[in-house]
Design brief:
- By secondary structure, the protein is mainly alpha-helical.
- It has a domain of about 240 residues.
- The chain has nine helices and no strands.
- It is elongated and about 80 Å long.
């Protein structure tokens, strides 16, 4: 039996449909697990970098174009506000002009808040989809690890990684994202006043959220990596002992049985690594599009803030600038979440390679 036949038989016994459906959601990589295995065996490149870069640049320009309308609306409202304030100062301070300017400020806040709610939901959904990838791929990878003789790794890392993914997702959804939401609300509320009353509190909350996500990624990835290194040594000794026993204690056919074991283990390793790489591609696909969207929105906020400031409304300009920083922080959180999941998959890919 050839490598290809043995690999195909093992793939047919596995349910990969849910994993391949997640790959189709992003559209960045058009690959299937069988294609990855075929290209690995033939020594071909897994993807075309030029095509991917062109897709990313095109999507970024599309998102910037879609977000420009928000900036145009805010600039138009700020111009109207400047005209009202100028008329107020020219004809004496009028309560009507002041109230009109306040209404314009509320309109800017409403536009920004609605946009931020969309961004907030996008980040939460992205984290949930990446966690779903891990929940689907772990039941596929860990049995393959155990089949390769990595019993310690498969038995210990399963609850460790699943627990880390669940806890990490909960921390982001229940703690970090709400902190950033309140930071955004404080920034927008501060734009109604002529002085900075709660801006420093908003910046403090944003910094705390960034620190918390960095600490979580460091702790979870560090503990999982240490656990993986320890179990990898034990698994390597177990596999070598089994192969030595088969080769030396089974008369006549021991050598052939050991060679057959090597072939089976090699095919299992190819499948495990291919599924792991496929999972990496899915994570990258799921995180790339939202990050580009967040970057485009943050860029529009920054440019709008720079254009609004000469009109004379420095408070709203500072508000838009800080809002752009908050959107960038959301992008950092999504990126670090993806990085943690990539680290988990990389650890699983590296295990079982000492056969």
């Amino acid at each position: 039996m050839t490598y290809e036949n043995l690999i195909n038989e093992q793939l047919e016994a596995m349910d990969l449909e849910a994993l391949e459906e997640l790959m189709g959601e992003g559209g960045l990589f058009n690959l299937k697990i069988t294609e990855i295995i075929s290209r690995v065996l033939n020594g071909e490149s897994l993807f075309q970098m030029e095509g991917i870069l062109n897709s990313l640049i095109g999507y970024f320009l599309k998102e910037v174009t879609a977000s420009i309308s928000l900036g145009v609306k805010i600039i138009a409202i700020c111009i109207l506000m400047g005209m009202l304030l100028h008329l107020s100062s020219a004809f004496g301070k009028s309560g009507v002009s002041t109230i009109s300017a306040m209404v314009c400020s509320c309109a800017v806040i409403a536009l920004c808040l609605l946009n931020f709610m969309e961004v907030y939901k996008l980040c939460g959904d992205t984290i949930d989809r990446m966690a779903l990838v891990m929940q689907i791929i772990l039941p596929l990878l860990l049995p393959l690890l155990i089949a390769m003789g990595s019993i310690a790794s498969g038995g210990i890392l399963n609850p460790v990684i699943l627990g880390a993914v669940t806890l990490f997702t909960t921390i982001i959804q229940k703690v970090i994202l709400p902190i950033l939401f309140f930071s955004c609300v404080f920034i927008l509320g501060n734009s109604l006043a002529d002085r900075d009353y709660i801006k420093k509190l908003a910046v403090l909350l944003r910094g705390f959220a960034t620190f918390l996500i960095g600490l979580s990624v460091t702790i979870f990835s560090g503990l999982t990596a240490i656990q993986g290194f320890v179990t990898k040594s034990a698994d390597g000794m177990l596999v070598k002992t089994a192969k030595f026993s088969v080769d030396n204690f089974i008369p006549i056919v021991g050598g052939f049985a050991a060679d057959s074991m090597d072939m089976v283990l090699s095919c299992t390793a190819i499948i495990k690594n291919s599924i792991g790489v496929f999972g990496l591609f899915i994570i990258i696909t799921l995180v790339a599009i939202p990050l580009i969207k967040l970057l485009a929105i943050a860029l529009v906020y920054k440019i709008t803030a720079a254009l609004v400031e000469p009109i004379g409304n420095k408070v709203i300009s500072d508000c838009l600038n800080e809002l752009g920083n908050t959107v960038i922080t959301l992008g950092v959180i999504v990126f670090l979440g993806a990085l943690l999941f990539i680290i988990f998959l990389s650890i699983l890919i590296s295990l079982g390679t000492t056969i």
